[in-house]
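Budget justification aside, the reviewers requested a transparent look at the raw inputs and outputs of the sequence design task funded under Objective 1. We therefore reproduce one unedited record. The lines immediately below are the structure tokens for a 340-residue chain.
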């Protein structure tokens, strides 16, 4: 049996050909990975593995490791886990693909890989764990858009229903794709990040937002909540192949009149009317069952396990990057890689 694993650049026809053969999402598009890579100071690539009639693709960002001459790999922001035209029930294929990926990255001088799996496009965690470590972080939340509006409302917790109704009575209006409000929303987003004490990574520069819009075109949308012409908040979200994903949401400081709750309600109605199948809200911080998860869980009954896959391709080089005396095996379940 002929098998092969190789790295692809974003302009490679083989990247698009693999996407055409697989169930995939916006996070797997080369234009998305190209836009995300500068945020972590890396280069956009994908690993492709082939067997006769079978293919697996994994987008990655390759980053230099400071003063080492080596590199590591990380998923783009979001959920761009491995995808294949071979189902997760064929664990043997996924194990072979995973091992081929490890061998390829090792040969390319890439010491580790940190991969976020896609909650809605399951991969066989047992197969991936055979060539790395899989960590379960918690669950994410989704809304089934095939449900009737009445059933979606019934699945919404009473407290949220009351707040949504209050927002409507206050006159809050949700407008989709008024891009004249984009820069104003970006300012609101940055203010929101400062208010919650977010790390510097999440302060995506305005140029990134505008470039992402250009790259994704009508696969990215902006919904803003307005009251008397004033912006209360908004949600930047993706729509692709029946999937909707809430990418980033923010509200202004002070009284937002429950605009954040009305945004989720209006967007699920919007998505259903356009024939989408699922609205994925994401989970808590790092997958935790925290207040953010509880906020999202009030809008829908869908629950999906969220995992990360951690791979060490070169144990000796990895050990050299760790603090003296730190055992390699102790570093696989927490922040990974710990030298970052």
């Amino acid at each position: 049996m002929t098998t092969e694993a190789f790295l692809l650049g974003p302009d490679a026809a083989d990247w698009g050909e693999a996407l055409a053969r697989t169930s995939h999402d916006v996070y797997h598009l080369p234009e998305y990975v190209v836009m995300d890579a500068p945020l972590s100071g890396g280069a956009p690539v994908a690993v492709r593995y082939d067997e006769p009639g079978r293919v697996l693709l994994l987008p990655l960002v390759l980053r230099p490791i400071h003063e080492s001459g080596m590199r590591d790999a990380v998923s783009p922001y979001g959920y761009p886990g491995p995808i294949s035209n071979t189902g997760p029930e064929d664990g043997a294929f996924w194990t072979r693909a995973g091992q081929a990926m490890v061998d390829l990255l090792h040969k390319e001088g890439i010491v580790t890989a940190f991969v976020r799996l896609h909650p809605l496009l399951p991969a066989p965690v047992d197969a991936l764990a055979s060539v790395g470590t899989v960590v379960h972080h918690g669950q994410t939340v989704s809304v089934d858009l095939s449900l009737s509006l009445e059933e979606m409302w019934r699945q919404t917790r009473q407290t949220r229903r009351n707040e949504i109704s209050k927002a409507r009575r206050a006159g809050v209006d949700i407008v989709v794709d008024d891009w004249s409000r984009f820069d104003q929303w970006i300012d609101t987003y940055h203010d929101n990040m400062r208010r919650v004490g977010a790390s510097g990574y999440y302060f995506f520069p305005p140029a990134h937002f505008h470039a992402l819009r250009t790259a994704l075109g009508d696969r990215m949308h902006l919904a803003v909540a307005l009251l008397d012409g004033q912006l209360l908040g908004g949600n930047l979200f993706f729509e692709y192949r029946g999937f909707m994903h809430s990418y980033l949401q923010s509200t202004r400081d002070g009284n937002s009149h429950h605009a954040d709750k009305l945004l989720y309600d209006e967007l699920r109605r919007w998505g259903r009317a356009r024939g989408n199948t699922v609205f994925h809200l994401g989970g808590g911080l790092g997958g935790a069952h925290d207040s953010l998860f509880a906020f999202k869980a009030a809008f829908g009954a869908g629950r999906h396990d969220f995992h990360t896959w951690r791979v060490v391709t070169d144990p000796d080089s990895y050990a050299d990057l760790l603090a003296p005396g730190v055992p390699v095996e102790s570093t696989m379940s927490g922040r990974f890689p710990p030298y970052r």
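The two ends are 39 Å apart (CA to CA). The chain has eleven helices and 13 strands. Computational costs for records of this kind are itemized in the attached budget.
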